[in-house]
Write a structure and sequence with these properties.
The protein is of the alpha+beta class. The chain has 7 helices and 13 strands. It binds zinc ion (ZN) (2 copies). Residues 8-10, 12-13, 81, 83-84, 86 line the site of one zinc ion.
Length: 244
């Protein structure tokens, strides 16, 4: 039987798995996204998790167990390396669902190329994604039934996918604003204004205006501004702001 070994990014935590995984999958749930963003490893910091499903009994931490940090979230326990903050594995808190665990695929070390059994078979929690995928893998809104989800598939909106709009722009303009309005935005706006003055420009077309960080600033300062964007929800947000 094949055996696989792995270690976290900094190498403090090492593990061993008996046999091949049942499957591997990309998970876009909030837990995986948050945990991925904490890791020091670039391979982890991609906005989703890539986990291998194993029987809990086939997985063993071989060194560095005392270096594990535990995070409990939404009925799951996630074990991270304290030093590099990379996810090692996650397990359900529900005793009836603890037969299987999800192990971070990025930590496996393969002597040859990655075995077929590690190729991802699906996306789960695709509804929460921040990265769009154009692959042919099934994309579940939450999770398949055997993983205690609804089993419903996400219907990919081709137009949105082609535009490649980041998820925030499509569904969360509120969050987009929260990120965008900052000291840097103010500094950027002042710089833009300086450049416009230098060139004696009075009319501005902002072709990727988003929720209007520049449009509103410049309009207030007497410029004639037109904002345009491919993300319809940003523009709705824009209208709401205009009415204020
Ligand atoms: Zn580590
Ligand atoms: Zn997840």
């Amino acid at each position: 039987m094949s055996q696989h070994v792995g270690k976290c990014y900094c190498g403090r935590v090492k593990f061993y798995c008996d046999g091949d995984p049942f499957f591997t999958q990309y998970c876009h749930c909030n837990k995986c996204r948050e945990v991925a963003s904490r890791s020091r490893s670039d391979a982890d910091k991609v906005g989703y998790g890539w986990t291998a499903g194993y029987l809990t009994s086939n997985f063993k931490i071989t060194s560095g167990a005392d270096n594990l940090e535990e995070i409990v979230k939404n009925n799951a326990k996630l074990l991270l390396c304290k030093a590099c903050h990379g996810l090692i594995y996650g397990i359900s808190l529900d005793k009836n669902k603890q037969a299987g665990i999800g192990i971070n695929v990025n930590n496996f070390h393969f002597t040859d190329s990655m075995p077929e059994s590690f190729k991802p078979v699906r996306h789960i929690w695709y509804v929460n994604r921040i990265v769009n995928f154009n692959d042919d893998l099934p994309k579940f809104k939450d999770a398949p039934k055997e993983q205690f989800g609804s089993g419903e598939l996400w219907v990919v909106n081709e137009a949105e996918n082609k535009l490649g709009l980041p998820f925030e722009y499509q569904q969360m303009p509120e969050y987009f604003d929260a990120h965008n309005i900052s000291e840097q935005t103010e500094a950027k706006n002042r710089l833009i204004e300086e450049l416009l003055k230098e060139q004696n420009v009075k009319t501005v077309l902002d072709m990727t205006c988003g929720t209007g960080s520049q449009v509103f600033y410049l309009a207030k300062r007497g410029y004639e501004v037109i904002g345009s964007d491919l993300a319809p929800l940003c523009l709705i947000k824009h209208e709401v702001k205009l009415k204020k």
